[in-house]
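Human: If only I could read backbone structure tokens as easily as an amino acid sequence. Underneath my words sits a plain record pairing an amino acid chain with its backbone structure tokens. Take your time, and here it is.
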Amino acid sequence: MNGRERVDILRTMASTHPGGSLSPQRAREGLRNGEFAVAYQPVVKAKTLDLLAVECLIRWQHPELGVLLPGSFMTALEDAVTARAISYFVLETACRQLAGLQHSGVSSARAAINIQPSQLADKELSERIVEACSRNQIEPSLIELELLETENASQVLNVSDYTRPFEKLGVRFALDDFGSGYSSLAMLGSTRIQTIKLDRAFIAGVPASTRACTLLTSILQLLDRMGFLVVVEGVETMEQLRWLSVHPEVFVQGYYIARPQTAILQAVRPFN
């Protein structure tokens, strides 16, 4: 059974058994039982491999099903209460890990935390960021909130009442999986984001396909002129990294750079 088949089966389990092993209720129980953990994947500059950030990735260490990636329990994550609880868990964990980096003398990296777009309308989120950063003696500017590219994300990122509390703290916004179908280039002209993470489909055909190279080059040049920090996701080969390194302001993330690590120090040490 390949990975995609396993995810499909797990999603079916979650949708057909609302009170079952992957339900929102079970996920919240898992949080209380200490079944969740955070893995960290570096984001580095393509040209120099200088560290920019670590993306904080949730993992469910399910007692019956083993270690689950978010795609396996998406039904639970689509529940607002569960998504909020998991986001707060990731935030608290990441802040503790960032504080540990500082105490060990390792250069701090920005922590990118995935949230649901609707959470920007929740005043508690900005308060939680302030509390977690204060408790761990780190600056809120080390936090970046990643929103998956959805129609809702495009809407909320254009509402200053939602984004202003975070901007005052120095918290950055990133749009994840850009190019997967919901946002338009026109939207980027007014949206309140600093980082664009390109969907892995853009790099998949590089460098073998001339068309893929031309398309990605054009997008990188456009986003650079618009002032966005650009991360190319899904870098899997040396050839892809070499091709991207020609673009001096591009950042990369993917298995060729580093796989997610359960300890943040292990994730960032090769790039310090």
